[in-house]
Amino acid sequence: MTTTRARAGTRRVTGAVVGAVALGLLLGACATTTDVEPLAAGAPTGGPAPAPVTAAEEEDPLAGSDLSRVGPEQAAEIEDRVVTAEEYAAAFERYRGCMADAGHELGSVLHHDLVYRFVVSDAAVQDGTDDACYETEFHHVDGLWQTREEVYALSGQPEWEQECLRVRGVVPGATPEERHRQLRALGLDWGDCP
Fold it and tell me: Which of 3, 64, 102, 147 is the 20 to 30 Å CA partner of 191?
């Protein structure tokens, strides 16, 4: 089995994993807060409400993100919260190199619509190499790059975010900023939506 990574933290998976992800989404589609509008009265709710989004989190796209596994190069690239095309390419090449050094070459690498699309082996996912390399070298650079307006518009991400919110019983905001605020209010990160 292979895993395709096409967008920030998103893995497209085949087979039994798809069923498990769908079941997890159905079971996890429960939280709402005053910051998110439910689809209708009686929309599913449950579990503790996430903390409200603070003003600092509104300003910082990485506020609340776990940066503990970020490598020094990625930390420098995300320090100003703006990623250039050169930084994005360098971070991807570090991720690719990390995977190769661990014996897992990326497959079907394409650079299309300003983002890298590639296939990750199931073995790399199962042994944790993919997660370790992605978190250390590429995750937050990838996320910041793909939320740039010109990249975001080409990515299909607006549709993904809207579906991620809908499956959790939330009416998606009209703008990317509103949807990002809603996702943060639900305690979701880039990799939490299918």
Answer: 102
A 10 A CB-CB count for 82 gives 12
CA angle centred on 191, ends 94 and 172, rounded to 5°: 135
In the block, residue with structure tokens 């809603």: 182
In single-letter form, the type of residue at position 109 comes to V
**pLDDT tens string 43-73:** 334 444 445 555 555 688 888 889 999 999 9
State what percent of residues in the chain have pLDDT above 70: 66
Q: Phi/psi zone of residue 38: left (φ > 0), alpha (ψ -120 to 50 degrees), beta?
A: beta
The answer to whether residue 20 scores a pLDDT higher than 80 is no
Q: Cα separations (Å) of 182 from 12, 24, 74, 153, 168?
A: 23, 20, 26, 19, 11
Burial class (CB within 10 angstroms; exposed 0-12, middle 13-18, buried 19+) of 132 = middle
